[in-house]
């Protein structure tokens, strides 16, 4: 019962983080590995469980969606779905040892992205040139690559989206948050559906249901909390969690 309660609370925290700014994977993945699941199975369980929370957050923001760089919501969503499907297939087709070896480095990459935060947008802007806006095709290509990364791993995928849109299109992070949550839901949905039918995530139904219930509640609540809590507090807590998780993963391996 204690283990289930911890998984439930982990789901709530992961759902809130995904709705607020991204990073639910930093909480869900290590928690599931700590209770005995393999990294690949833990990743699949976490992805499935985070789907309802991401969808709940997208539902809250459904009336605030706006095109990104001339790309319609439908086109961006289809690109996210296809990219996520490709990434999820790579996770399933490649040897489990490949993911286990890559996990610490993927976490380190996602942590670095999180730590850079707003500076990432300025750095990318210098490379692209501040006066050069991304074409719709470039937006879709960038979204596909980010979604493929999200389908395979998922850590900081929402942060990468905001960084791309901010640097390439000048979209404010707050203004882009509704679309970020919607695309995060698309990325998690397609990979989650694939994992339901092709992974061994259903072998741990009790853990999956507990994490799913918590993430759903957290995703809905987080979408509302995002408008009230200070961004620096949320980002600081997430960065601390990400850093500790990354260090522990390197120590494991």
Summarize the structure.
With 253 residues, the chain is an all-alpha fold. It has helices spanning 2-20, 24-34, 39-60, 73-93, 96-116, 118-128, 136-152, 157-169, 173-198, 205-225, 231-252.
Distance between the termini: 29 Å
**Envelope shape:** globular
Computed Rg: 17 Å
- Please tally the β strands and state the result: 0
DSSP helical segment count? 11
- Which range best describes the helical content: under 10%, 10-25%, 25-40%, 40-55%, 55-70% or over 70%? over 70%
Largest sheet: none
Q: Which structural class do the helices and strands define?
A: mainly alpha
Number of domains: 1
Element order: H for helix, E for strand = HHHHHHHHHHH
Explain the overall architecture.
The chain is an all-alpha fold and 253 residues long. It is built from eleven helices and no strands.
Task: Provide the descriptors you would attach to this structure in a database record.
mainly alpha, globular, 253 residues
Outline the secondary-structure elements.
Layout: H1 2-20, H2 24-34, H3 39-60, H4 73-93, H5 96-116, H6 118-128, H7 136-152, H8 157-169, H9 173-198, H10 205-225, H11 231-252
């Amino acid at each position: 019962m204690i283990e289930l309660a911890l998984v439930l609370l982990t789901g709530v925290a992961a759902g809130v983080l995904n709705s607020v700014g991204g990073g639910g994977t930093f909480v869900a993945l290590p928690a599931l590995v700590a209770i005995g699941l393999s990294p690949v199975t833990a990743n699949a369980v976490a992805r499935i469980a985070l789907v309802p929370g991401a969808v709940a957050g997208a539902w809250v923001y459904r009336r605030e969606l706006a095109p990104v760089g001339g790309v319609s919501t439908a086109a961006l969503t289809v690109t996210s779905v296809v990219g996520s499907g490709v990434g999820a297939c790579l996770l399933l087709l490649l040897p489990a040892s490949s993911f286990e070896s890559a996990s610490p480095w993927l976490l380190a990459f996602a942590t670095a992205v999180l730590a850079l935060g707003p500076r990432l947008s300025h750095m990318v802007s210098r490379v692209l040139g501040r006066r050069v806006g991304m074409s719709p095709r470039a937006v879709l290509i960038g979204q596909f690559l980010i979604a493929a990364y999200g389908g395979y791993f998922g850590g900081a995928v929402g942060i990468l989206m905001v960084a791309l849109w901010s640097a390439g299109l000048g979209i404010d992070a707050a203004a882009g948050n509704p679309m970020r949550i919607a695309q995060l839901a698309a990325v998690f949905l397609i990979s989650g559906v694939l994992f339901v039918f092709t992974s061994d995530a259903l072998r741990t139904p009790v853990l999956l249901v507990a994490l799913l219930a918590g993430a759903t509640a957290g995703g809905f609540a987080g979408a509302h909390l995002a408008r009230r809590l200070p961004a620096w507090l949320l980002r600081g807590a997430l960065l601390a969690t990400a850093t500790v998780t990354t260090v522990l993963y390197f120590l494991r391996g």
